[in-house]
């Protein structure tokens, strides 16, 4: 595999400093303040993009981005579900260290408290304009369930460093089903206030459970409460008719707001950091009509095309605005793939030969590689030479890496688990992280050094029966896999290599003991 990636000459010194040592970011580079655009997909698995070798789906815009940047083959989100991955990415702290960081309800209180130093705070302190657009899923407001959704809900992303926000409070399958701009519901009619509950239905409101005749998309499990746009959700909701989204328009809405944000940056003095969190391809998968039937894989594949279209629109915009070269674009996902995640959208029936997690076992929710090994691309046109990297990367390190690049001193209690690896990512260094810690739905942990993967015995079901995902939990037996010879984690060799298992166990214990482990 071609591993040629290093700086293009920023100046002769910069180039030689990097390519000769292959280790340190040249000092000249540290002064740079490129824009940073983070495209964070939802539930897109390692095998869901054609740049990662899939032939059953065609994602040309993502492939172009990959061909112009570095494609990482061993990059991990911090956890196998959304909220903890996003938490870790934005705080630089593993979510398993903190209570209340599991999959958040739509009416959860804000999980990252305003006094925390966040990734957005870090960019802001370096003089960046910051924004978040798309899926939030990290809670809003002071206290769970008490938010007044008709007013500005605080705290909101502005309280952890985002100058601008246009977000879905949680996910598309959770109420409230409306966008929030800078903390305020978009399009709300004061004469039709919106109410949200996760405890009981509002009298007279139909639900998926009681009124299946009203549904255009039926749940396969869960998702049988409030009906919005003919689709039943998790959580109840009343009112706010004009503000309710039409699922088919969500990608367009996210993209048009991102384009507007970028247009505002064109002549700005400040560089920008945009966290662009797409809704695709989370359930309910209801992409715009123009994508329907285009993938041959049903709604899930069509949503992948919608994602690819979004990427194309954003990249075209950067080019049009002359921001192409001065912007680092990272594309990744918040967890691995899942096929049936709660709606009868025929994703299972139409899957065919498509391998959404690639060769990897498990998927969303799982401790196996399919849970956290996700697509990851990094493009810095004109500066980084395109290539492929097999080094270990963790999203928890984005924080410290950008802080290092920008010369920001992170406060002592900030980003405790984040380490700077920008030099490894950008220079011709073979080695990234020494190890990556993985987290599954049950907050069980595993550790890999890239070659070996150790999963301590841990409680929990072996299979998520609803989604038909192997979670990887084995209550009575440790697991050890050689990911080089057995990437699909089929042969547990722990009995043959107790010494290797012990080494990784000691490493994991050390990581755990450098802070706390909330294991619930
Ligand atoms: C699960 C939901 C699933 C999805 C997931 C969160 C049920 C039965 N399943 O609890 O549909 O919403 O939570 O996904 O409700 S995530 O990508 O945001 O983590
Ligand atoms: Ca997700």
The CATH first-level class of the largest domain comes to Alpha Beta
Oligomer: single chain
CATH topology (fold) name of the largest domain: Alkaline Phosphatase, subunit A
The CATH superfamily of the largest domain bears the name Alkaline Phosphatase, subunit A
Number of helices: 11
Largest sheet: 10 strands, mixed
Q: Name the shape in a single word.
A: globular
Total E-strand runs = 20
pLDDT under 50 segments (min length 5)?
1-23
- Could you tell me the mean pLDDT? 93
Over the alpha carbons, how many angstroms does the gyration radius reach?
22 Å
So, CATH architecture of the largest domain? Answer: 3-Layer(aba) Sandwich
Q: Could you describe the 3D structure shown?
A:
This protein has 520 residues and is an alpha/beta fold. It folds into 3 domains: 6-185 and 247-426, Alkaline Phosphatase, subunit A (3-Layer(aba) Sandwich); 195-238, no CATH class; 436-513, Arylsulfatase, C-terminal domain (2-Layer Sandwich). Helices cover 21% and strands 17% of the residues. The chain has helices spanning 12-21, 27-30, 60-67, 82-91, 119-125, 250-265, 299-320, 369-372, 398-406, 422-426, 498-513, and strands at residues 35-41, 70-76, 129-135, 164-168, 179-181, 184-185, 195-197, 227-228, 231-232, 236-238, 272-277, 327-333, 376-379, 387-394, 436-439, 445-448, 452-455, 463-464, 469-470, 479-482. The strands form 5 sheets. Strands 6-5-4-3-11-1-12-13-2-14 form a 10-stranded mixed sheet, with helices on both faces. A hairpin with a 2-residue loop joins strand 5 and strand 6. Helix 6 runs parallel beside helix 7 (299-320). Calcium ion (CA) binds next to loops.
